[in-house]
Predict the structure.
Amino acid sequence: MTSHTSRHPLRIAPSNLAQLGPDVERVLAAGADMIHFDVMDNCFVPNLSFGVPVLAALRKHGIQAPMDVHLMVAQPERLIEEFAEAGANAITIHYESTPHVDRCLQRIRDLGCQSGLALNISTPLAVLEHLHDKLDMVLIMTINPGFGGQSFLPLAYPRIQAARALLDRLAPGIRIQVDGGVKRSNIAAVVAAGADTIVAGTEIFGSDDYQQTIAQLRAHAGQAQQGMTA
Ligand code: DX5
Ligand code: ZN
């Protein structure tokens, strides 16, 4: 083979996705209960993340933990089946993202996944009155979806409380998840308001010691839960 000198210096570009598996393993070993998988389409939200192949790759890598897929996409009905097949355990769609919310939730359950419904900060909680029989989890957004690292919107506190009160009346088994700007400094208030499933992106992945951060989040949340039962 003749050797050839390129005018272009060689560049090696490892895909950052290659590290996703090990980092997910690291955060699970540090005490996470599940992985929250944010899917953004640059249409429903002004940002783009990743899709089905990445979830499939994590499963192939050997990740067995529950995968909680948060679909921030227009027309979620086109992705539900593929995500279920790729190994999602729970799939959450946004109320604002489709005219076919009821059908989507039913489809998620039919595929053997837990169903979740996310509500943006200005979406009336009353929609839950018509959907609770198809729901395992309600996601009360605590930021405007699309970007990690935003500040928690205080208006979310009374919404979490009101959602918990409404669900206690309609279907007490439905969980309440919160997503956006949750930190060690506010997790106690969030849990005291009624949340039981906590998404934390920047707070965990931005810290040096995942294990310590998760333990501290748990400790603060635990204090709030004790206060509730006292
Ligand atoms: C935002 C996503 C969130 C977010 C959480 O649209 O749904 O899951 O990335 O990140 P933090 O915890 O940084 O707000
Ligand atoms: Zn999310």
Observations:
- Residues 36, 38, 70, 179, 199 surround zinc ion (ligand 2) (CB under 6 Å).
- The mean pLDDT is 95.
- The chain is about 35% helix and 15% strand.
